[in-house]
Task: structure prediction
Amino acid sequence: MKYPQPQFVTGLKCLICSREYPADNRFTCTDCGIQGILDVQYDYDAIRSNPKSEIRNPKSFDHWRYRELLPVSPELPLPHLHVGWTPVYDVPRLAKHIGITKLFLKDDGRNPTNSFKDRASSVGVMKAIEFGFNEIACASTGNAASSLAGLSAAVGLKSYIFVPKRAPEPKLTQLLIFGATVLRVNGTYEQAFDLCGEACEKFGWYNRSSGINPYLVEGKKTAGLEIAEQMKDNLPDWVVVSVGDGCTIGGIGKGLQEMKKLGFIDRVPKLLGVQAEGAKPIYNAFYSGKDLIPSDTNTIADSIAVGTPRNWRRAIQQVRLSQGEMITVSDEEILEAMRLTARLGGVFGEPAGVAGAAGLHKALQKGIVKPNESALVVITGNGLKDIQSAKRATGEVLNVEPNLKSVEEKF
Ligand SMILES: *Cc1c(COP(=O)(O)O)cnc(C)c1O
Ligand SMILES: [Zn+2]
Result:
C-alpha cells in the first residue's frame, strides 16, 4: 500500500553542511557521512495559514495533536496507544527544598512503556509502515528498545532488538513480553549499534536507531511542543533535560522553537542539559567548543550512559540557541534526586529519569539557576524500570512479628 507524503514536510537538511535532500528513507548526509545528521524541514507558513489546522483546535489528547508538525502521512492509521500529553505537576515542597521559587515536573514515565522514548518510537513505527517495511530494529541500552517493542506490538510490526550486556532486567522483560526478538550482544553499546546497522542492511529491516534516523527526533520534539502549550501562561525560565545521545534535548529545543515560530509563546526557555559525571562527552564538547571526543561510561544512569553520542551537534546547537547551560551530576546526586522527587514530588523516576532534577539542584547551588527563577524538569523514565538502583536509594523494610508489641518496639 502506498501512503501520501506527510503534508507539510519539505525535505531533510544536514546539520553540518546544510545540504538538502528529499524526505525519503535515508539516514545521514552523503557528504558528511555518519556525523551528518539530517533535520526534517517544514513549511511553517503553510502550517500557520492552514485553515483546517488542528494545532489551534486539537481533538486528540496525545501527541498526535501535533500531526501537522510531524513527519507522518496524513492517511496512515495511528497506533492506538496513548503517547505524550503527559501531565505537568506543580511541586512546591520539592521547590522549597532545592531552593527555587517555582518548580514543575513533567512526568514522561506515564507513557505506554514508561519512558520518553515512546514519543520517538511511535513516529518510527509509522515511518517503517509508510516505507513498506514489515520489520524494524534498534540497538538500545533499554528504553528505546522496550518502547520499540511495545509500539511494534501495537501496530503489528516484527521487532528485533540488539542490547548491550548491561541492560537492566525489567527493561529486558518488557522486550520479551511484547514479543521482540532480543539479541544480547556480548560487547559494548557501540558494538551493538554497529551490528544493528549491518543487520538492517542485510535483512531489510527498518533501522529505528534514533541517533541517526532523522524522523525519530521529531517524535521527541513533541515534549517541547507540549511544554509550550501546557505552560504558555506560566512559561518557566528553564527547561531541564537529561542528556545521553542528545536527541531528547535537541528535540525538545526544536519543539519550543517551533512553538515560538507559530506564535504560541514569545520566548524560548533556557535549556539546562544534564549529563552524568561518568558519561559527559557532550558536556565536554559544549564547554570546549571543539568537536566531541568519545569517552568511556561509568554511571548508574544506564539510559544516558552514552560514550559516543550521535546527536551531540543538535543538542549543543539547541542549548546555545536557548542561551542555556550544561551541568554534570554524580551517581550519589542522582540517587538523592530519586529520593527527593519521589518523597517531595510524588514522582518515581529511574536514574536517568531524575538526573535532570539532580542537575537543577546543583545548578541552584552553583548559582547557574537563580532562586527567583522558575523551572520545569522533564522526568524521562519511570523508576520501576530499574529496581536495582532504586533499592540503592532507599532504606530497608522493618520486619515485625504479627503482634502490636513487636510494632511498638520499632518506634
Ligand atoms: C534515552 C533517555 C534519555 C536521554 O535521551 P537522549 O536522546 O539519549 O539524550 C534520558 N532519560 C531516559 C530515561 C532515557 O531513556
Ligand atoms: Zn552534510
Observations:
- Residues 88-114+216-393 form a domain with the Rossmann fold fold (CATH 3.40.50.1100).
- DSSP finds 14 helices and 13 strands in the chain.
- The chain has a mean pLDDT of 95.
